[in-house]
Specification:
Keywords: Plasmid. It is a single chain. This protein has one domain (7-99). The relative contact order is 0.25. It is of the alpha+beta class and 115 residues long. The model has no long low-confidence stretch (mean pLDDT 88). The chain is globular, with a radius of gyration of 15 Å. It has helices at 10-18, 74-83; strands at 7-9, 22-34, 37-49, 55-61, 70-73, 98-101.
């Protein structure tokens, strides 16, 4: 029997994605305009496919506080996708909806800035 953790720290998500893992992005608060920002609230779950055919969700948490990793701006969500090297990110915009992020088979290497 395989142990399926209830939580995964943010630092392990990048490695899991590199190994073919998937990340569920769940919108908890619908997007709305707040000044110059588009705000909402998104939380994350690492998806693990088990040998029994089931898919298990593991909440992504911040290491120091063990609080769920949450992002509250659309800009922050885009930056997190970029940090994880996700090239085609789905951004759910309505509370209760979700999207799945995963790396493409070959993620292009970052280009060096030209002077």
């Amino acid at each position: 029997m395989t142990n399926h953790p209830a939580a995964t720290v943010v630092g392990q998500v990048k490695k899991s994605l590199a190994d073919g893992g998937r990340l569920l992005v769940e919108c908890e608060e619908s997007v709305h305009k707040d000044g110059s920002q588009m705000r909402g609230r998104w939380v994350f779950f690492l998806l693990n496919d088990a040998e029994d055919g089931e898919t298990y969700r593991s909440q992504v948490v911040v290491w120091k506080t063990v609080e769920p990793k949450a992002i509250v701006t659309l800009n922050g969500l885009g930056a997190f996708a970029r940090e994880l090297e996700i090239n085609a990110a789905v951004f759910p915009l309505v509370a209760g909806t979700n999207g799945t992020w995963q790396r493409e088979a070959s993620t292009p290497k970052k280009r060096k800035k030209q002077k």
